[in-house]
Amino acid sequence: MKRMNPREVRRMMQKMGMGLEEMTGVLKVTISMKGKNLVIPDPQVTVMKVSGQTIYQVVGETVEEKVEAEAKVAISDEDAQLVSAQTGVSIEVARKALETANGDLAQAIMLLTAKG
Fold this sequence. Notes:
three-stranded antiparallel beta sheet
């Protein structure tokens, strides 16, 4: 099989509508996962564009980082009273709905009214 030089390969890719370029200046790539992050310091990143889609190829050594559990959201008494008044439930139920909704008042009210 004949070996092709890189210039010929680039020309063929352009004819097929594919673009390939290397990203410069990338310091690190982080992939966030449940309970951990994969960090690739000083990676080599190549970007390929095919049919309107972008593909990133990342090459490098990975370092695994553990992620601490998210801090619990502080629910104020005023927020719990407001949700309780809007939905007609007890303050304890309103507080639990706010914890489920990570402190989002509108989402907590929607949760409680949907259960209604």
